[in-house]
Amino acid sequence: MSGFVQLRRDKRSPQRDLGAFLPTCRAEMDARGWSELDVLIVTGDAYVDHPSFGAAIIGRALEQRGLRVGVVAQPRWDVPDELLVMGAPRLFVGVTAGNMDSMLNRLTAQKKLRSEDQYSPDGKIDSRPNRASIVYANLCRQAFPGVPIVLGGIEASLRRIVHYDYWEDHVRRSILLDSKADLLIFGMGERPVREVSERMRALVGSGLSPREAMKSLRDVRGTAFVLRKGEWESREPSRYVRDGQVVILPRFEELRDLSGPEAKRRFAEMSRAFQFETNPGNGRPLLQPHGHEAVYLNPPAFPLTEAEMDELYDAPYTRTPHWSYGGARIPAFETIKHSIVTMRGCFGGCAFCSITEHEGRAIQSRSEESILREVRAMQRAADAIGFKGVLSDLGGPTANMYKMTCRTDEIERACRKLSCVHPGICENLVTDHGPLLSLMKRVREEPGIKRVMIASGVRYDLADQGVRGGKFIEDLARHHTGGQLSVAPEHNEDRVLQKMKKPGIGAYERFAERFACASDAAGKEQYLVPYFISGHPGSTLADMISLAQYLKARGMRPRQVQDFIPTPMSMATSMHVTGIDPLTMTAVHTVTDLREKKLHKALLLYWDQEHHDLAREALRKAGRLDLIGTGPSALVPPPPRAAPVARAGAKAREGLRGRR
Ligand code: SF4
């Protein structure tokens, strides 16, 4: 378990600027002249005061509204002692598992322990519990009886309704019920957490107890809570029905055992219904019964405006891990410390990805001025973060959606589509790359900046769209690629790409050609690094063989293959567990056996000797012995002949048999 509080005590020094970070101990509260906190944030990640870390950006967002916020990072979870170092907060405790779901953070697609925790000092893997939101919430209840608990972060957000847990291979109820939290904030939390905090401050100031005040907050967008017996309609929703303005989802009891076809169908219906209520412009409240209780979800929060995004990123972040870590390496921080987030959200709606569900479909961009202010802040912090003028990334969930919007707000508010780019690019999408080109130019011309890389994934079907799409590829190749550029075609087979909600492979090939031309014109030798997913719903063994043949024919040797992980609430997870595509309600092929998943992955690593045994097994299983051999069309060589020693041993054994 964690001993970071002890570490903080040991490393404390009187020379430190104790007011630079949000307080983590009494000394830092004293430095700010605070006798108590309004809000305490408990997080499963190390405390890094950088806007890419959830606890930091939420803490700073509240600080900007005059709230006194403290942070306890990665506390021990056997006893509540480390939660108590700053006393009970006046309004509520905010609990987050961290930037990743704690199960995904700990276990691989093969359900094996990961070698490193990206969000912990020195990558230590025992710094947070499994299901951290639930464990911390229980701990907070012990530490602070009577103080409301608010869950936030991606783990809570994506487990807010009944969901499938891949690592447990089980359907779980809403995390609100398991954690017994008073409120859950889903999606990007700044707007709802500010509204909750400000209303709580007023209500508690007027004499209500924090619990009473929290209980009265029933209408905040982007929040969910539990209705107890008698608080919701007694009428039993036996089928998925739209009940006035509230969409009633199938109850937990209908879904928890997915062994039968009816339960699977209901689970798929739930996934579908949920997806169609994620646009804040027209999404309705959801209600999902669990026994005598029900989880009620308000519609999603509205996206942040440009001014609100700027305000958030203008907060006085130190841009470093808390000094108490004594310079320990925090892997995720090392990855992002020289990068800048320009926007959030994604209108791609890929089936395997939950960014759209969590960050929203509307793109929320910062202004150029705000981004340039951050570049200058990085230069001022150069010594602390080792910044030498090379920006490692300028982007967000996608490299090239900066400031792209629907044609009008009115159309966007009314839209019920799940993606702006699938099955084709929507005619209402403004695909102008002009704002991004202008931003790229201004940042690379900023005094003191030597290189600006774009490492976020490029949405290649958009890259040549609009009047300035071609120019984007040219500038990307000439100025912003350091030899290799990551793109994610994911598969080659149209049927599979349809299930993934990705563009056809032709779009990737067109981009690859244009990127190669642009690199030649810039006099640079550089390559695309394509990413692929194995084991995705819809992909059969034959499809994986087709993909391996496609790769081999083009001399492509992927080094990174993502074995599909069914994370909570994605559309692909729903397909994985039910065998039904929730959008069409038709059957879909799935790979659920771990060995089978390995075979799928091994085919894409056909070039790597380490995977040849598994690839041969896959080919034998598919009846494709023709692809095992030494000819030009073979994917893998035949198994090596038995070594001479072994043959000698075999002969000796034969001899023994003969003598008997
Ligand atoms: S109308 Fe088209 S561009 Fe606008 S939000 Fe809907 S899908 Fe996206």
Description:
This protein has 660 residues and is of the alpha/beta class. The chain folds into 3 domains: 4-297, Rossmann fold (3-Layer(aba) Sandwich), CATH 3.40.50.280; 337-457, Transcription Regulator spoIIAA (2-Layer Sandwich); 483-660, Transcription Regulator spoIIAA (2-Layer Sandwich). 37% of the residues lie in helices and 13% in strands. The strands form 8 sheets. It has a 10-stranded mixed sheet, with helices on both faces. Strands 21-22-23 form a 3-stranded parallel sheet. Strands 5-6 form a two-stranded antiparallel ribbon. A hairpin with a 4-residue loop joins β24 and β25 (586-587). The longest helix has 17 residues, at 505-521. The radius of gyration is 26 Å and the shape is globular. Iron/sulfur cluster (SF4) binds at residues 347, 406, 411-412, 415, 417, 420, 426, 428-429. The site of iron/sulfur cluster (SF4) has 10 residues, from α17.
The assigned structural class equals alpha/beta
Which architecture of the largest domain would the CATH scheme give at its second level? 3-Layer(aba) Sandwich
How many runs of DSSP E, i.e. beta strands?
Answer: 25
CATH class of the largest domain: Alpha Beta
User: Which term fits the overall shape?
Assistant: globular
Overall number of domains: 3
Instruction: Quickly count the helices.
Output: 27
* Radius of gyration of CA atoms, rounded to a whole number: 26 Å
User: CATH superfamily of the largest domain, please?
Assistant: Cobalamin-binding domain
Strand fraction equals 5-15%
**How much helix is in the residues?**
25-40%
Strand order of the largest sheet: 2-1-3-4-7-8-12-11-10-9
Largest sheet: 10 strands, mixed
What molecules are bound to this protein?
Answer: iron/sulfur cluster
- Name the average pLDDT: 92
At CATH level 3, the topology of the largest domain is Rossmann fold
Measured between the Cα atoms of the first and last residue, the distance is 61 Å
